[in-house]
Amino acid sequence: MTTIGKTIAPVAAGTMVAGVPGGVVIATAKAANKTIGAPGSLAHVLTNDKLDKKGSVLAEQTKEGVKDTLKLGGIVAGTGAAAAAAVAKLPKANALFNGLKDKVSNLLGKFSYGNQSIKDLIKNTKIFQKFNTLPNPAKAAIAVGAAALALVGPLISLVSSAKAGYIEGQHEVK
What we know:
The protein is mostly helical. The protein has helices spanning 3-18, 20-32, 42-47, 54-89, 91-109, 118-123, 126-132, 136-170; strands spanning 112-113, 116-117. Helices cover 79% and strands 2% of the residues. The radius of gyration is 23 Å and the shape is elongated.
């Protein structure tokens, strides 16, 4: 077993055994005489009587989930780093980024909440004031990284969920 597996297995087993919500789910499933939740979910694994070893299923699902999370982190960091490098080294990229900032700013100025524009509401927050003091490459890295997270995150989540269901299915005693 890998180091990650040795770390994850006890955590997964502890989570499975210690959680009151898990106990409620199991009791409800026993009363209804059926599994609960979507295949691959914690509730489904806890209530699936066809599994050979629930702890190993949870450990394997957790391991795959961690791998997927690290992939997503790599994508976000990589795209952010590429954007920062481009803005720092290429004048055209810097000009493009400044143009995009202006377009977003103008767009947000057209919408309002109460008596203030969204642009002014955002501009008055502490986080924006700190963000605004950053150099352009850092702003680009954050903006592009956040965009990558928003675009790729749901896809990775869907794939990870499908993997969890597949792993559960592989451990079912036929």
